[in-house]
């Protein structure tokens, strides 16, 4: 893929004006700008594809970006784990007034019955329904609804607050049973994994209190909002360590935010894939730039040594032993012994040390090997000095850092049929 220099691109971005985001052009003038923008863009593009599933309505994008800003600004209410889960459940049930229970438009939410099931599940009350029965019933109804293409007639939405006490209620129809079973399953799960250590009852109270707060929310996409708030908070929390944990890069939240918006709305000035490649390459340059420079210096000095030959591609080699056999073609499979080191002598791989030669297709290895081994008659032993661009380039390979110059002693034992 063609490399893209973000520094030469005028990035299309969005700005907030009355909670409406519109396109504007932003010039990225240096590496720090580009990294911030690219980080937002790649994450926005991934969210669009996987979390939003291409739902890029203005309502959804606005809710996420506003939540991202709140998380970064620190204006999100700090809640316990139980309180936060309660708030999310409350918002989800509020959302179900429009989408239906479990996102099935045919299943009208009856909050009174759902919440009673939830609380009975929290308390493990089995008077109306046991957890296993609730699970089996709900799964059967969910599968049946899929097969029947949601043929159940929509019912009337019933609104109510979440109660605190266990109560036995009558389930008079299928809708009642579905609401109760789904509520009971949620309550049972929360009791098992969130409120297990709630010896005083305070966490349970916190959980239910925040359910009712969540019910008052006007949020349309509670999961997306929660994600935005958490991402914004994480960006702020990591700011002191530098962008992506790199001290030389300063966080610029405005550019990150604009990148997110572009990624969410599918701006084509730069793709998420290109942004991801830029981030990886830049981070490798920051962390391993000295490896690249040291390798270039080594090769320049090595090329002047007696016996070292240099090909047009930049591959360097020495003949340690010249064989008399046939030279392989790029499409051949060869049998070799080899010993690989970095320029500082660190051994990263060696069939010699393992005591067992290796067979491979000559067109299935790094470019330096493909070119170099074709120079060897069978029975030869060469030493290759492979520039990083003929090796693994900007990619790490096991214990080999990005941009590493590689040294191999290779003995060609045969050409395999």
Describe the structure.
By secondary structure, this protein is α+β, with helices and mostly antiparallel strands. It is 46% helix and 14% strand. It has twelve helices and nine strands. It has helices at 31-51, 58-73, 81-99, 111-122, 131-147, 174-193, 202-215, 222-237, 253-265, 272-302, 351-354, 367-373; strands spanning 10-17, 20-27, 309-310, 316-321, 333-342, 347-350, 358-361, 381-386, 406-416. Strands 3, 4, 5, 6, 7, 8 and 9 form a seven-stranded antiparallel β-sheet that branches. A two-stranded antiparallel sheet has the order 1-2. β3 (309-310) and β4 (316-321) form a beta hairpin. The longest helix has 31 residues, at 272-302. The protein is elongated and about 90 Å long. The model is unreliable at 1-18 (pLDDT under 50).
Ordered list of secondary-structure elements with their pairings:
Layout: E1 10-17, E2 20-27, H1 31-51, H2 58-73, H3 81-99, H4 111-122, H5 131-147, H6 174-193, H7 202-215, H8 222-237, H9 253-265, H10 272-302, E3 309-310, E4 316-321, E5 333-342, E6 347-350, H11 351-354, E7 358-361, H12 367-373, E8 381-386, E9 406-416
Antiparallel strand pairs: 1-2, 3-4, 4-8, 5-6, 5-7, 5-9, 8-9
